């Protein structure tokens, strides 16, 4: 059943934390259609360490600045929900958002979901369950793929896999993102609930702010289990190559629709088309694919299927996040 069009309260976030510059369109309703803004803000969400994300995204914002003939600034929101609210408040016009937040931006504020990402040809991805204690969670011997270890069939690199093993998580410390994250919270927590674990009392939550932080929490022993998108270990392996073998993926959730790009509804249809075309064409170039891979492990941007996002909203509804 498609969820009702109500506001999700997965996190309460003040707009003040965003520190976004106001770039809303000029004009008012009485004066006829508002003019497009003379500069744009692109909101990024912290799927990895926030510190260098704006710099990492600079080739993307530079490309948009040149293609659109106006300055485009990148900013990193405090969390996923803050990016949605920034778009609703006119503080950001372009959002690179996870699937639930794409749905929210459209449902709450009428944003257009124009593009969704592909990763190595895939338009969906699983959340992964990872551990530093494979003897407890692995029913078979871990196998290596591309320098990383998997067990319980998770080396198939698609979900679901190994979900029988997640019952053993009960009582463990678990590194997880906030409730707005499909892979870092919603899908893994729903899987635990379906496995009969009380997610309020049956696990000890170790909150983290990004997917790479979940990997590091498991690697450093701060948590026995962690949730993240597949395969967030790649982010950490650049600096800590042993993570691929010290942190073992033992289960995969159901598949999740990929993240994508939303545009605020106060932009003209012409400008929205220019932005969508510029991003799609950029992703098809070698330079663009390399830049997008560095930002969000994206290999291509393709036309969106907004209806595909309903399953994520359904999952959030089942967890009471509305």
Automatic annotation (TrEMBL):
Keywords from the UniProt entry: Signal
PROSITE patterns hit by this protein: PROKAR_LIPOPROTEIN (PS51257)
SUPFAM superfamilies: Periplasmic binding protein-like II
Coiled-coil ranges per UniProt: none
Cross-referenced InterPro entries: PhnD
GO cellular-component term (any): ATP-binding cassette (ABC) transporter complex
GO biological process: transmembrane transport
Keyword Hydrolase attributed: no
Residues making up the signal peptide according to the UniProt record: 1-25
Family the entry assigns: Belongs to the phosphate/phosphite/phosphonate binding protein family.
Name of the protein this chain belongs to: Phosphonate ABC transporter, phosphate-binding protein
Gene assigned in the entry: phnD
């Amino acid at each position: 059943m498609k969820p009702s069009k109500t506001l999700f309260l997965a996190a309460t976030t003040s707009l003040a934390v965003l520190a976004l510059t106001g770039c809303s369109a000029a004009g008012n309703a009485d004066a006829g259609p508002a003019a497009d803004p003379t500069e744009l803000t692109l909101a990024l969400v912290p799927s990895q360490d926030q510190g260098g994300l704006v710099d990492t995204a600079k080739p993307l914002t530079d490309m948009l600045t040149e293609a659109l003939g106006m300055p485009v600034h990148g900013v990193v929101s405090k969390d996923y929900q803050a990016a949605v609210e920034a778009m609703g408040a006119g503080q950001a016009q372009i959002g690179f958002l996870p699937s639930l937040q794409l749905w929210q931006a459209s449902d709450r504020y009428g944003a257009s979901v124009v593009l969704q990402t592909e990763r190595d040809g895939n338009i969906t991805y699983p959340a992964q369950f990872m551990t530093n204690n494979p003897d407890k969670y692995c029913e078979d011997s871990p196998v290596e793929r591309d320098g990383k270890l998997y067990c319980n069939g998770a080396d198939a690199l698609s979900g679901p896999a190994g979900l029988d093993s997640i019952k053993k998580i009960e009582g463990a410390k678990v590194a997880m993102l906030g409730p707005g994250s499909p892979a870092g919270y919603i899908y893994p927590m729903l899987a635990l609930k379906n496995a009969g674990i009380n997610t309020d009392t049956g696990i000890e939550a170790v909150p983290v702010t990004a997917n790479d932080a979940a990997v590091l929490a498991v690697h450093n022993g701060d948590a026995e289990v962690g949730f993240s998108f597949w395969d967030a270990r790649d982010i950490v392996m650049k600096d800590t190559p042993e993570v691929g073998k010290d942190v073992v993926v033992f289960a995969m959730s159901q598949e999740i629709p990929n993240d994508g790009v939303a545009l605020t509804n106060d932009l003209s249809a012409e400008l929205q088309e220019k932005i969508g075309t510029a991003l799609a064409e950029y992703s098809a170039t070698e330079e663009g694919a390399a830049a997008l891979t560095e930002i969000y492990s994206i290999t291509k941007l393709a036309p969106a299927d907004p209806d595909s996002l309903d399953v994520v909203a359904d999952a959030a509804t089942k967890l009471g996040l509305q």
